[in-house]
Amino acid sequence: MHRPEHGRASGPSRRALLRAGGAGAGLVVAGLVSWPRPLGAAGGSRIALTWFGQSCFLVESAEGVRILTDPPGRNAGYELPTGLRVDVVTISHEHPDHDNLGMVASPTRVRVLRGLTADRKGWTKIDVRLKDVAVRSIGVYHDDAGGAKYGLDTIFVFEVSGIRIAHLGDLGHLLDDRQLSAVGSVDVVLVPVGGATTIDARQATRVIDALRPRLCIIPMHYRTPTATATNLATVDEFLEGKSNVRRLGTRTLHLTAIKSRPAAEIVVMTTS
Ligand SMILES: [Zn+2]
Q1: Best exposed site among 39, 62, 228, 257 by fewest CB in 10 Å?
Q2: Mean per-residue pLDDT pooled into runs of 10, the chain (272 residues)
Q3: What pLDDT shows up at residue 39?
Q4: Dihedral of the CA atoms 108, 111, 112, 117 (nearest 10)?
Q5: Ligand 1: distance of its center to the CA of 168 in Å?
């Protein structure tokens, strides 16, 4: 299988991160901060990922760029902020648990990157840069029938302060060689694992094995105690038989490009 190794985070950006290490780091304690105040990127050397449930993460770059992914509707069962200040919102597909701009402050002034065209029959081509963030998109499907069941989906690849993050949206199939090479090498994968309308635990494991993220794997889009999507499996099925699991116990994860473990960790986040 051909997989080009382009760049990763080994260029100047990572060196910059290493130089900046410690400058203010540790001032922000995960889980104790509240939005919409900047969460974790204040230290300058780290990025922060905060999970709001389903497929919705706030990603904060070291330079303070704030990206929100797939904001869910109010009826998804999660405690959602209002008036969240962000620079960019990405929407993998136009389903109500992924495209609610209601939690964002001044949505008309936010850059909304929709993966699908207005008629939902095609993908937009996204390739955007903002300070220390770059975002691009790859068109995929919400099912394993070429979109015939649930339509199209988008993978967003973010390069945030030198860390590459792939958000798979509601991916519904395994990735072929062309799609894998379009995603490229990544550090973090945000992967749906709950099945029903997306890949299930077994398929998600195969997708991860093919993507081979360097730092961590964050499961999403599964049934939690508060989720209203009760047709989804819990995260336990995905974790079964895996040893490199860390239960974070908070909704915010801080990351640097520095790799400290031999294998990528599975990080299970909570939404409270
Ligand atoms: Zn969904």
Answers
A1: 228
A2: 42 35 29 36 69 97 97 92 95 94 91 97 97 97 97 98 97 98 97 97 98 97 93 97 94 89 92 82
A3: 39
A4: 110
A5: 11
* Cα 77 to ligand 1 centroid, rounded to whole Å: 13
pLDDT in the model for residue 14? 38
Dihedral angle, C-alpha 119, 125, 130, 133, nearest 10 °: 110
Calculate how far, in angstroms, residue 111's C-alpha sits from the geometric centre of ligand 1: 22
**Residue 181 CA: distances (Å) to CA of 2, 73, 166, 177, 211:** 7, 32, 13, 6, 9
What is the greatest pairwise CA distance in the chain? 51
Which 3 state secondary structure label does DSSP give 237? helix
Cα 39 from Cα 22, distance rounded (Å): 17
C-alpha–C-alpha distance, residues 194 and 253, integer Å: 21
List residues bridging with 123 in a β-sheet: 116
Q: Which residues pair with 188 in a beta bridge?
A: 165, 216
Parse the chain into domains and list their residue ranges: 12-20+36-257+264-268
Tell how strand 56-60 and strand 66-69 pair up: antiparallel
Please check whether the domain covering 12-20+36-257+264-268 is classified as CATH 3.60.15.10. yes
The confidence score (pLDDT) of residue 56 equals 97
Contact criterion met (CB below 8 Å) for 171 and 155: yes
Region for 221 from its dihedrals, namely left if φ exceeds 0, alpha if ψ lies in -120 to 50, beta otherwise: left
Q: In degrees rounded to 5, what are phi and psi of residue 137?
A: -130, 155
Count, residues in the chain: 272
By the 8 A CB rule, do 253 and 218 touch? yes
Of residues 188, 253, 190, the one with CA closest to residue 219? 190
What's the gap in Å between 227 CA and the centre of ligand 1? 12
